[in-house]
Design goal:
four-stranded antiparallel beta sheet; mainly beta; seven-stranded mixed beta sheet; 122 residues; 52% strand
Length: 122
């Protein structure tokens, strides 16, 4: 029932920043934990960041650079990405899990967006 649509990706140079937005519809965002995953072509989907209740956590490679946030009133989840690196290049997808079920494993999530492409290159 829940629909997720990502936006904000693009082609950027190393060291720059992007903010990704995940817009939710068809449900109440506050009823879900939310996460961000990324997948480069030919590679497995990788956990990036998530909320479990009010607790945020990140994969080691983005700690200190990326920040996940949410605005339930707007039905939106964000991923602020600073100091982007070429290895951050991927399709970034947001996902929703049942409350308390958000974690680093993609199997925990029930709803997925189609993703927004982030390409970091000179």
């Amino acid at each position: 029932q829940l629909q997720l649509v990502e936006s904000g990706g693009g082609l950027v140079q190393p060291g720059t920043s992007l903010r990704l937005t995940c817009a939710a519809s068809g449900g109440t965002l506050s009823s879900y934990d939310m996460g961000w995953f990324r997948q480069a072509p030919g590679k497995e989907r990788e956990f990036v960041a998530a909320f479990r209740w009010s607790v945020t956590f990140y994969t080691d490679s983005v700690k200190g650079r990326f920040t996940i946030s949410r605005d339930n009133a707007k039905g939106a989840v964000y991923l602020q990405m600073n100091n982007l690196k070429p290895e951050d290049t991927a399709l970034y997808c947001c996902a929703a899990a049942r409350r308390g079920g958000g974690g680093s494993n993609e199997d925990q999530y029930d709803y997925w967006g189609q993703g927004t492409q982030v390409t970091v290159s000179s």
